[in-house]
Write a structure and sequence with these properties.
Number of domains: 1
CATH topology: TIM Barrel
Helix content: 40-55%
Strand order of the largest sheet: 3-2-1-11-10-9-8-5-4
Radius of gyration: 18 Å
Oligomer: single chain
CATH architecture: Alpha-Beta Barrel
């Protein structure tokens, strides 16, 4: 089981640099950041740009994979996103995991004063993903359903660089099919509404979602085991970092549902905060086989 950690970029860089180094020293396989303009978990506080933070984090780490969990399909277009991702891929020596999802309505308001529906965000995600594939394939022009590009005169990647690992966040049928068709991996936090569920109800919902993702893969003649399956925990009632026992239980449950990566929130918030945990809990779990 791979273990990943969210390092929310809500602290000044001097502190974040130490956070990333510590997470690598503890043994985490990957560190992820937000890609939001605004978010309720950072209300009233600072939230640094995700891709800039990742590029800086690449300079203070050596081994961990790094990525957004997840980049917003609403905030980015295919060519611009490909350039951001390729730059971090280059700076990090090939360690970028490009997490990508539909984005949040709150960021649409903050960015363009637009009110968007979940359906509109989902439709744009299809275009962004298919446009990314076109960019990485060397296309100089492409047209999706609502967005496109033309006149591209530069290469999508630096010389001799591989394209980033694409991890798609998907919850509904359309997005699950998109991930099954195009992604190297699938990520979920349980989907809309899951954060209000009691723990056993949450695990049942994730079990159902994992089964639907496997069905989508089979429909497209793709082996589900060939894709990374990543589960983010901690936003709702399931709090894996509350104790060593809770963390180990979450690892076992996730593995039993076919996930091979579990992502938790790092120990960077004060006591009383929803995401609070101690470094000791993380250290003890990571010190043992998982």
């Amino acid at each position: 089981m791979r273990l990943g950690v969210i390092v929310m970029q809500t602290r000044p860089w001097r502190q974040l640099a130490a956070d990333f180094r510590l997470m690598e020293e503890l043994g985490y396989d990957a560190a992820y950041v937000y890609d939001h303009l605004t978010h309720p978990t950072a209300a009233g506080g600072w939230l640094a740009d995700g891709f800039t933070t990742l590029a800086a984090a690449a300079g203070v780490t050596d081994r961990m994979e790094l990525g957004p969990l997840v980049a917003s399909g609403h905030l980015h277009s295919p060519v611009a996103l490909a350039r951001l991702a390729a730059t971090v891929q280059d700076v990090s020596g090939g360690r970028l995991v490009l997490g990508l999802g539909a984005g949040a309505p709150g960021c649409a308001l903050a960015d363009r004063d637009e009110t968007v529906t979940g359906g509109q965000l989902s439709a744009r995600l299809v275009d962004v993903v298919e446009g990314l594939q076109a960019v990485w394939g060397g296309a100089t022009e492409w047209r999706g359903r609502a967005i496109g590009f033309s006149g591209v005169e530069t290469t999508p990647l630096p010389p001799a660089a591989d394209r980033p690992f694409l991890l798609l966040a998907a919850h509904g049928p359309r997005a699950l099919a998109l991930a099954a068709r195009h992604a190297d991996g699938w990520n979920t936090y349980g989907g809309p509404g899951s954060t209000t569920l009691a723990p056993e109800q949450f695990w049942a919902a994730v079990r159902d979602q994992a089964a639907r993702f496997e069905d989508a893969c089979v429909t497209l003649d793709r082996d589900p085991a060939s894709l990374r399956r990543s589960l983010l925990l901690g936003f709702g009632s399931v709090r894996p970092t509350a104790s060593v026992e809770a963390y180990r239980d979450a690892v076992g449950r996730a593995a039993g549902l076919g996930f091979d990566e579990l992502v938790v929130y790092g120990p960077f918030t004060p006591p009383g905060d929803h995401f609070h945990s101690t470094v000791e809990v993380h250290a003890e779990v990571l010190a043992a086989p998982h």
